[in-house]
Amino acid sequence: TVVFSVNVLYDERIVLVAEQRPDSTEEESYQWMSRVLQAIDGIHQVGVYCLALVPANTLPKTPLGGIHLSETKQLFLEGTLHPCSILMCPHSCITNLPKPRQKQPEVGPASVMVGNLVAGKRMAQASGRDLSHMEENEQFLFLSEMLQWRAQTTPDHILYTLINSRGVVGSSLTCLQLHKRAEKIATLLYERGQLRDGDHVALVYPPGLDLIAAFYGCLYAGCIPITVRPPHPQNISTTLPTVKMILEVSRSVCVVTSQAISKLLKSRDASVAVDFKSWPPILETDDLPKRRCPLLFKPCDPDALAYLDFSVSTTGMLAGVKMSHNATGALCRSVKLQCELYPSREVAVCLDPYCGLGFVLWCLCSVYAGQQSVLISPMDLEVNPALWLQAVSQFKVRDTFCSYSVMELCTRSLSTLTDTLKVRGMDLTRVRSCVVVAEERPRVALTQSFCKLFKDVGLHPRSVSTAFGCRVNLAICLQPHRLGKLAEQGTSGPDPTTVYVDMRALRHDRQDKHNCLYVSRVRLVERGSPHSLPLMESGKILPGVRIIIANPETKGPIGDSHLGEIWVHSPQNASGYFTVFGEENVRSDHFGARLSFGDTQTVWARTGYLGFLRRTDLTDANGERHDALYVVGALDEVMELRGMKYHPIDIETSIIRAHRNITEWSV
Questions:
Q1: What is the spatial distance between Cα 356 and Cα 85, in angstroms, rounded to a whole number?
Q2: Which residue segments constitute the domains of the chain, with CATH numbers given?
Q3: Which PANTHER family does this chain map to (predicted)?
Q4: Which of 114-118, 472-476, 527-531, 632-636 is modeled with the greatest confidence?
Q5: Is 142 helix (H, G, I), strand (E, B) or coil?
C-alpha cells in the first residue's frame, strides 16, 4: 500500500493505492476498503479522496521490492494506473476535514527564548562524545593513504569477505590485495581512460568486492567516484533510465564496470530504453593492466571533494551530496568510536552499498578501522532469505548491520521456518549488536515482530537497535547496543527508549501557555491510550555531532520535548548539494543555516526531518543524563490538510490495523 496526497480544490487530499491479493474476491476487496476507510476516519478523523486496488505485482517497484511511491503517484495523476476496484469519496473527504486553523500573530524568536527561560525549560540541544583523542592511524587525512599504510603494515590481514547466495565465501580481499587491485584500476583510468585529476567516474557494479576496489582505484587516480546501482536485467526498461540520469546529473566522463554489466548496457533491450551511443566511454575491470600505476595521486587539500553520494528519495527527488576527504575521515572515525571497531573485530553488513551509511559501512569503515567485514548482498536474499542470518550464525559474528527492507524480507519469508533453521544449527546467541540503518522513523512494530520471531534461535531483543542519517549527514545517530561484559561496563550507554505520544498533538501547531510559541508540544501518554503512537529512539548521537531542534519557519530554537526540525552541526556534514533533480523547492540553506536568535554564529545543516529531543532519567557512560532523539518524519512527506499535518506512515499503520489479513510486510 502507498499513501500520498494530491491537490483538489486548493487543498491536499489523501489517496491510497494497494495491490489486490490474487485470490481475493470482489466482496473481500469491498470489505477491506470499507474497513480501511472506517479505520482512517475513526483514528485520524479525516476523509480519503480515493482508494484504489490494482492487480497484484503491477505497481512500479524499487530495487529491493518495495512499491515506488513517486512513480505510482505519477501514474495516478496521468490516469494510467488501471485499477480493478476504485472507491471515490469526494463528499466525505470535504465534509470530514479538520476545521481550518486560525492564523495566530507571529511571535519573535527572542520571546521564545525568554519564555523558555521563565518557564525553567532547557533548549532542545544535545551532542555526542568529544573527538579530541587521536590514535596512530588517525594521523592520515585521506583514505587512500590509510589503505597504503595498511598494505605495508598488515598486508595479509583480511578486510573484506563476500558471501555468495549459497552461503559460502565467494571471495575475499586482504589489505595488500585491495591495494594492488586499486593500483591496477588507477592505471586503467590513466592509460585507457585518459582521465585527469578531478574527473567524475561512475562505478556501476553489483554489490561486491569489485565495487570496493574500483572506489579506491579512483582515489589512487585522483578521480571522483560515484557509486551507481546497475540496471536490473528483468526490468531494464525502468531501471536503466535512472542509471543514465545519474550519469548525466553527476557529469560522469567515464563508466567503470564489469564485463557482464557492460554487455547488459550494450544489449538490444537496453538500446530500446537508452541509446548506447549516448553513454560515456565504458571501461571494464575484468582484464586489468599487468603493471601497476607508476605514480599514485597524492591529495593535499582535506576539504577537496572525495566522492559524490547520490540517492533518490521517496518523493522522487534525485540528490547528490558532496563528501570531502575531511568529512569522510570524520564520519569513519565517528562510526569507529561509536561501534568500537578494531582490526580484531568482525562485522556482518547486509546493506545497499550505493549511498548513505550503507556505502560507508560497505566500502570505507574497514579500510579506516581495520575490522573484517563479512558482506552479504541484499539482492541475494531474494533467492535465499535466510542467507544473512545464516552467515551471522556461521561466522559467529557479534555485530551486524541491516536495513528495514532486509528485516522485513526475513520476517515475511522465514516466519514459519524458525524450527527448521534451529534444527539446521542457526544460533544467534552471540549477536550482541544488530543495528538497523535507515533514513526514516524507526519501525517499532516490524522491529518487535523480528525480535519475537527470531528469539527462538537465540536473538536477544536488547541487541536490536537503530541508526539514523540523512542527506546532509549520513550518520547522525547510531546505537550499537552491547550485551554481556560491555553492557555491564556501560560503554554503550543506556538502552534505546520507546515512548508513547498523543498522535493528535503531532498533527497541528498550537500555542504553548508559557512562551507563546506556535509549535507542537509532544504530550506523552500511557501505552494503549487512545490515539497513542509508539516512537522508538533513533539511536545514540555519534561522537562529534551536535543536534538542535529549531522551528523550520522562524529558525528559532525550540524547548525540550517540542516538535521541530532537526538541525545538525558536525565535521562529518556533507559540503553541500552537488545537484538536485526532480524538486524545485529544496531549501537553499540546507547546509548553511543559522539560528535567528541565541547561538547565531554556529552554522547548521537542516536535515529536513521533524523530531524532538527529550532528556531522560537514564545516564550515559560518562555519568550525564541521556538525551534521546525521536524522529517523527520527513518534512517533504508531510500531508497538510487545513493546517493539520499527517505522516504517510501513520496512515499505513492504520491500514495494518484495519483488517486481520493485512500485515506489516504487505504495506
A1: 38
A2: 2-94 (3.30.300.30), 115-129+491-658 (2.30.38.10)
A3: DISCO-INTERACTING PROTEIN 2 DIP2 -RELATED, DISCO-INTERACTING PROTEIN 2 HOMOLOG C
A4: 472-476
A5: coil
